[in-house]
Design a protein that fits this description.
single chain; 5-stranded mixed β-sheet; elongated; alpha+beta; about 10% strand
Length: about 375
């Protein structure tokens, strides 16, 4: 989608607040026009104070994305205060605000918010109706939890879709890396085979009186080898990622259920191979955190100690003492060992998983 073709989040929030304002003003007016619930409408003065209270209750809707709990608190208090002032504000700003809060706020605050929503609805019914029956309490609790449950359900669906998208991107990157590794092996095999044949032909040509046939064969073999290698290395032209790109990787993998932090100590100008290897190790370790650990927090630290690059990836998920080594962990070890380094992975005390990689800095210069 072209830049500028979508509204910004702030603009969407303001538009939503305006729509809630139109709903809050329009529904009572519609009831009054058609003669429905005329008794209640006549009891509410349609003066400047009532309009001010309605505006004040709807305005916080525009802030529910950035400040969900303060915004809904202001809207709920204004609606509640309007009752003893005899300028009753319809509950639509609070109902829609409850849905938005459940959709946007941190999960740790949701139980407290749900209890607050129930308490607010019971208080509103008590102000209107006086004595509450047990059935009133049950109905009020259900009505209060409906927008909260709806907002939370949509939030879970959104987070699940984002998680699937991140896993899809990670799987694509892993598939491309595996394909490049396969092609690299093919290049090695093709080059080794043809160069060995060329060497044999050259040695045979030295013993022959007329080496023209040997030279012709060498030219054919070299042309064939170059053609095959050119076709294979096209996939390998992608530049190695750099450690400075790790914050962008962490941002892609972070989500409401998983907070990932990255700390890059002052790093010297490291060889490209070392940076690429370190990036891939962190990428694979974080992919495993997303897929398998059930963690809520993960931390990445990259630093240089002496002649080694040290990488640490840890999380607070479910760590076990015995985990079968899959392709991901095996791939991390193979990458590190190719540069003369090592990777150690295992449970973390008191819980979670820890991956530590050591890469010799000077081995990436070759």
């Amino acid at each position: 989608m072209a830049p500028g073709s979508r509204l910004s989040p702030w603009t969407r929030d303001v538009v939503l607040a305006v729509l809630v304002l139109a709903l809050t003003l329009g529904l009572p007016a519609l009831d009054f026009v058609v003669g429905v619930d005329d008794r209640i409408w006549k009891q509410v003065p349609r003066d400047g104070l009532w309009l001010l209270l309605v505006f004040a209750a709807c305005a916080p809707i525009a802030l529910c994305r950035r400040f969900p709990l303060p915004a809904i608190t202001v809207s709920a208090l204004i609606t509640l205060v309007s009752v003893p002032l005899e300028h009753h504000v319809p509950p639509w700003p609070v109902v829609i605000g409850a849905y938005l809060v459940a959709y946007h706020c941190e999960r740790r605050w949701l139980p407290l918010f749900a209890m607050g929503a129930v308490g607010w609805n019971l208080g509103l019914m008590a102000v209107f109706g006086g004595r509450l029956l047990p059935s009133d309490v049950l109905v009020s609790t259900g009505l209060a939890l409906m927008p909260v449950s709806f907002g939370y359900a949509l939030r879970v669906h959104r987070d699940h879709a984002r998680q699937l998208q991140r896993l899809h991107v990670a799987e694509q990157q892993r598939a491309r890396a595996e394909e490049r590794a396969r092609i690299a092996r093919d290049v090695h095999d093709v080059a080794g085979h043809h160069l060995s044949a060329i060497r044999l032909r050259a040695m045979g040509g030295r013993r022959e009186a007329d080496g023209e046939d040997a030279l012709r064969t060498i030219a054919e073999l070299s042309a064939e080898a170059l053609g095959e290698i050119r076709g294979l290395i096209e996939v390998l032209r992608e530049d190695e990622p750099r450690l400075s790109e790790l914050p962008a990787l962490v941002e892609r993998l972070s989500c409401p259920d998983l907070t990932v932090t990255v700390k890059l100590d002052d790093l010297p100008n490291l060889p490209e191979k070392v940076q690429g290897c370190g990036y891939r190790i962190v990428q694979e370790a974080l992919t495993n955190v997303v897929r398998h650990s059930g963690a809520h927090n993960a931390a990445v630290r990259v630093r240089v100690a002496g002649a080694n690059l040290l990488i640490t990836v840890e999380d607070d998920g479910v760590g076990t003492d015995t985990v079968p080594e899959g392709n991901g962990l095996r791939g991390m070890r193979e990458r590190a060992e190719h540069l003369g380094g090592s990777v150690v992975a295992g449970p973390r005390d008191p819980r979670g998983w820890l991956v530590e990689a050591t890469l010799p800095v000077n081995r990436g210069l070759g």
